[in-house]
Amino acid sequence: MENIAYNSLREKNMQNTALPLEQLENTKLNITEVEDIQRQFAQMSEKKVVRQKLLEWSENQSQSTSSKNKLKAALGFWLLGKFEESLTLLEKDQSELAYYLKGKIAAYQEDRKKEIVILEKGFQKYPHSLHLGKMLAKAYLEQRDIEKGTQLLETLKKLELSEEDILFLEGYLYEIQGDYEKGMEYYHQVLEKDPSHFDSHFRLAIQESLRGDEDKAIYHYKECTKKIPIYFTAWINLGLIYEDRGRYEEAIRCFEEVLRIYPQNLKARMYWEDCQFSLNMVYDEDRKKRTDRRKQILRIPIKEFELSVRARNCLNKMHIRTLGDLIEKTEEELLAYKNFGENSLQEIKDMLSKYNLSLGEGKRQAASPYPRPQSSVKTRNQVPEELLAKSIHELPFSKRAITGMEKLSIYTLGDLLSKSEADLMGVRNFGKVSLDNIKKTLMEMGLSLRKV
Known about the structure:
The protein is mostly helical. Among the domains are: 303-363, 5' to 3' exonuclease, C-terminal subdomain (DNA polymerase, domain 1), CATH 1.10.150.20; 380-444, DNA polymerase, domain 1. It has 26 helices and no strands. It has helices spanning 2-26, 31-42, 47-62, 67-80, 83-90, 96-108, 112-125, 130-142, 146-158, 163-176, 180-193, 198-210, 214-224, 232-244, 248-261, 266-298, 309-317, 323-326, 331-335, 342-353, 361-366, 385-388, 399-407, 413-417, 421-425, 432-444. It is elongated. The two termini are 60 Å apart. Mean pLDDT is 82; it is low at 1-17 and 367-377.
């Protein structure tokens, strides 16, 4: 029955997928209609099904010789986050929608200067376009060009820009001028009118995070993750909050969602690697607990076990006092001892099996085919004082590595060389990428972190 119910629900979702695809097929290619289609796609529950159907549809449209169908294909690729494919189809298109899509793509790629150039050209060609106008006003404000942003906002008000868009831009203006409370008040007013206003959710998420209310920040970022094309920065910021909370698997999923669409995103790649390393550290902690438990077991005295008098006496004469001593011996060594027979051997093997131990185990683990390499790096005492006094900001460390070091009060090379890898990894959010950056930089100088 459960499978029938699930299949019925899935079939319903498949049918719902057809609705925005049908609208795309019949769209008149005006931006208001496109934004409505965008919202409908974002609300789809079967995202994987939606993406697959949309990809097939977009590829079919791109084969057409019709400029209208090519623009539809560009729109489809844009919704999927396939920006290069979309830009290729938009290259010679001078329509209002083409400027809108190219401006959106530049914004997603965080190329603000390019975004402004595109939108200025588009708004000059379509001076009554509220969509291009509000995007351009926001771009000006993001670049902190308050004068241009304010002037354009006043122009858009005369063109009867929607109340929620005016509220958002005014809220953003308050925010960038330092009145964060007023800005948040305006964003909440926007959401009362339009609960799916992603930009307001995003600004609120940032402010709530800065105020230390991560639960509210997570709520607003999660709302942003419903957006199609995916809101890269929202996914990354959400992943960073999860990472801060030690929820590494959820953080990894956030970064992977970005990398699935935009594999060249260096931030997502770096944070993903950090989380993978942190997750392994968690597993290492579990392994340490198991190791500590094993050590406790190996310290258990033989006298605490109920053994035959013969077995106990033999072990005592062989100076075997604990389970740790016992697993250092092989079966052959025990049987070679006088009066130690098969019955005593089986008795001991049964005892060890209760603790997942076996005879000879200690010797097997102690054997290592890999000799310890000799260090060729200088010790701290061999480094000149003037080099030890050098600021970490003068050395080619990454910004994130420097931030992590400063949390440990590491300000000079000398401070750094007095720390071990474990000291650095004890800092919150200090991951493998930062550690590798430090180790590589030190290695190039013939130096290394303190050995434990």
